[in-house]
Amino acid sequence: MKLYSPSTIADIRERYNFQLSRSLGQNFITDRSIIERIVEGAGVGENDLVIEIGPGIGVLTAEAAEAAARVIAVEIDSKLIPILSETLAEYDNIKVINQDILKTDVNKIIEEEKAAGNFTGAVRIIGNLPYYITTPIIMGLLESGVKADSITVMMQKEVADRIKASPGSKTYGAISAAVQYYCIVEQIASVPKEVFVPRPKVDSAVLNLHIRKEKPVELTDEKMFFACIRSGFGQRRKTLLNSLTGTAGLSKEDIRNILSTAGIDPVRRAETLNMEEFAAIANEAAACSRRQRNE
Questions:
Q1: Selection from 5, 123, 130 nearest residue 76 by Cα
Q2: Mean per-residue pLDDT for 230-249?
């Protein structure tokens, strides 16, 4: 069964009286080459565990099952569960879970699958993410310390451009700095809107996020680091002196001294800072905050 075929998708929708949900961002891929590129780009191997976010009717799931030892597909829409039972019936290495990925303990799934001996290799997370919750899903996984080797996901091109953006560019922002702190970002595919059913209004891209084993900068307080990033980009048109004032209760004079000690010009803006510079500011801010608490 060619699950990526528009005629197959239409047949399944008719037989199950399945109505696509705009609120869940349901758009199905009809280009096999894109499906193959996601699995290959994710580096899925025969001993690996794949966790898929939002399998839909199982197009990407089936391709992953051909390459991996085990696939766990997490689908929020209960109406798709009987459809997946049919479309994935020939595979004995797939388990479908009817849950919201934002409320799913992914590390628990990984631990259970490893304890059961269902895989001995790497953990790869893949998916075609709903546009409206792409960032919450990615940051939720990364901030929870997910024990995966990579996250390879399709998303709106605009979001992908922001995630992979470099300091100094117009698209560089808080999400760029945050994701790049946790991951090495690589784009593996550009996906035109024409290859989806139904057709979305925008193009997509596939990013491979290689989760870092070691963080790229040394921090004394990770929470302060992210607080500085949020404050800096929260008012990105303002200078660092103004945008960072109030972070963790620090005054303008505190921020002035922190920037001076870190060797950062106070009139610069957040989008001009690289990760090492954000780290220098955060470490000085953490030290200042500790001194004030101890006084």
A1: 130
A2: 94
